Amino acid sequence: MGDGRGWAVGAYGHPEVDGEVRDRRSTWLLVVVALTVALGAGGTLFTLLRGGGVSDTATVVPAPAEGVVPEGYLGRWEARVDGAGTHRLTVIQGRVGERVLTLVDDGADHHCVFTVSLLRKPDADGTLRLSAATVTSGAPLSSCAPATPTTLTLTPDDHLKRTGQPGTRAVTYSRSGHD
Question: Which residues cross the membrane (predicted)?
Fold first, then answer.
């Protein structure tokens, strides 16, 4: 309904000048949404470009209340690998299909973080069968390649042995902490 001066009452009872008010609101809404998306994308890109993503202190996730990982595996483990630097494992409680292991590989020229999921319930001897490792972050990222499925076994002298595919060398870890 107009008043003869170009004014009309809009659908929500607000005065409009030939649709200008509604157009300005739509424009501002689009600007706010675009800025929100741009800031989120920019923050993510900044984190990835500076070699971030997931830090080794942020990789430990609270354990689920129940799971199938035997108690002896849980905690932090470390190994020094000739020519490859230091490998740190964190094993948490979980069920089949869940992420139960985080591996941080630090060498002279790289920093890689991987996650690994439990493939099935532990074998009768307690051996854990794990999925191939997924790269979650790296610096430089090109130095971090996904690994093949592995197994974890506790040794009689309280070490953890990680074995890959036949023909690859096993890595033995010492306990460095317990969560």
Answer: 28-49
